[in-house]
Amino acid sequence: MTVLKNKKILLVICGGISAYKTLELIRLLKKQEVEIKTILTKNSKKFITPLSVASLTQNKVYDDLFDHNNEAEMDHINLSRWCDAIIVAPATANTLSKLSYGNAEDLASTVILASDKKVILAPAMNVRMWEHEATQQNIKKLKNFGYIFIGPEKGDMACGEYGEGKMSEPKQIIDFLNEFFKKNNYIYKHNLKAIVTAGPTKEYIDPVRFISNQSSGKQGYEIAKALSKKGIDTTLITGQTELNTSENINVIKIETTNQMFEETKRQLPADIAICTAAVSDFKVTNFNKNKIKKKDKLNLELEKNIDILEYLSKHNSLRPKLVVGFAAETNDVINNAKTKILSKHCDWIIANDVSNSEIGFGSDLNEVSIIYKEDNKNNEVISKRKKSEIAKIITEKVISNFNS
Ligand SMILES: Cc1cc2nc3c(=O)[nH]c(=O)nc-3n(C[C@H](O)[C@H](O)[C@H](O)COP(=O)(O)O)c2cc1C
Fold first, then answer.
1. CATH fold of 8-184, please?
2. What CA–CA distance (Å, rounded) separates 16 from 37?
3. CA 16 / ligand 1 centre spacing (Å)
4. Exposure of 393 by Cβ count < 10 A (0-12 exposed, 13-18 middle, 19+ buried)?
5. Is 178 in the pocket of ligand 1 (CB under 6 A)?
6. How many CB atoms lie within 10 A of CB 335?
7. Contact 37/79 with Cβ under 8 angstroms?
8. How many angstroms separate the CA atoms of 188 and 185, rounded?
């Protein structure tokens, strides 16, 4: 898998002759499984059609700052929030000038001004336009703002002249992006590995009967998917559920807490452990090899199970750098979670109130509080939303924990 897989790129196409090369760039990005949204300047449509761009990106083309059909969506804010980086290709002399002055007169310039994402500019223009003092001063300003340049290259130009001003070839831009994302991607550089436990465990009383709980595994599965989607090497150790995962996740199915424990140990060392499984606190000590008959006297003896979260948190040599536990509580959620963090020595506890049937076991929704080990970090509440959304937010927090 390349570092570009699943990256979200906002591609701004300006009105220059080399806009045709951008169609090839889109094709190569798509081959690397990059998700692309595009903004076309008004003048770019003189060179390429929105239809070609929409067909190749398989996404809508954005071109209007004042799109009354889309007003509520505020494209100029949302497009920037959505992407991992913005690429402007070709970046015309005109657009470079507008960006250097912080103009916000069309969708392209407004999105870029409103963005805190990295902006990569691939200029293309006639050699004298490029060498003009005005353009050179604009470039100096843009570099000071933190904009990144790729190219332009030297060569024969469409206008028949020779010199610096050709847009970098799409393949060069792809190579550049690969390097750029590798450099800025802790996950890729360090090949992060995560263990996620999910679902219920079973404690057998006899060969056909067991003690278990209502955990559906949904939140854990969503977290495993979100981590894997970000390029983290993810192993999901799961009790019995009705759920499926994506291909990239290494899934290990278990039944008992002991099996979950053994498989978890086998996965060490890992960088991240997220324990969402609803592990049985107790197991049966007097397991009956044969099925217990109705007439038999049933006398269940229980003993405490191994605490996997605590084991990982207190591991001397192979402790994951980040150990996160889930606390399903029915009352006094935050205080119980705080007690848990202190007794188990994990880094975060993510607590949810399973007494609320709208957000608890089995529901597609959740609402959680994140409690951190550090006293100077305030609890955070992730308000009620889909478990998949909660998983994405938790994943972003996990990643920024490693990036910081
Ligand atoms: C045939 C033709 C080719 C052009 N090629 C370029 C070019 O390669 N680079 C450039 O900066 N401007 C080029 N221009 C000028 C731009 O189209 C013009 O400056 C326009 O205002 C750019 O608009 P935009 O930056 O909003 O897309 C060209 C114009 C024409 C008519």
1. Rossmann fold (3.40.50)
2. 19
3. 4
4. middle
5. no
6. 12
7. yes
8. 5
- DSSP sequence for 324-378: EEEEEESSSHHHHHHHHHHHH--SEEEEEETTSTTTSTT-SEEEEEEEESSTTS-
Please state whether the predicted TM-score (pTM) of the whole model is above 0.90.
no
For residue 256, the SS3 value is coil
Distance from the CA of 134 to the center of ligand 1, in angstroms?
16
Q: What is the DSSP letter of 284?
A: E
Alpha helices (H) in 60-211, listed in sequence order: 75-82, 93-100, 107-113, 127-131, 133-144, 170-183, 186-190
Contact residues for 199 (Cβ-Cβ < 8 A; gap 6+) = 215, 216, 217, 220, 238, 239, 240, 241, 277, 278
Each residue's pLDDT tens digit, 126-183? 999 999 999 999 999 999 999 999 999 998 877 788 888 999 999 999 999 998 888 7
Q: Is 92 in the pocket of ligand 1 (CB under 6 A)?
A: yes
Q: Cα torsion at 308, 312, 318, 319 (round to 10°)?
A: 160
Domain ranges of the chain: 8-184, 187-403
Instruction: Determine the pLDDT at residue 360.
Output: 66
Q: Is the pLDDT of residue 319 over 90?
A: yes
Distance 48 CA to ligand 1 centre (A): 12
Residue with tokens 């998983």: 391
d(CA 252, CA 197): 9
Topology of domain 187-403, per CATH? Answer: Rossmann fold (3.40.50)
- Look at residue 68 and tell me whether its pLDDT is greater than 70: no
Confidence at residue 335, expressed as pLDDT on a 0 to 100 scale: 87
In the chain, the percentage of residues whose pLDDT exceeds 70 is 96
159 catalytically annotated:
yes
Q: Give me the pLDDT at residue 71, please.
A: 56
User: Do the domains at 8-184 and 187-403 have one common CATH topology?
Assistant: yes
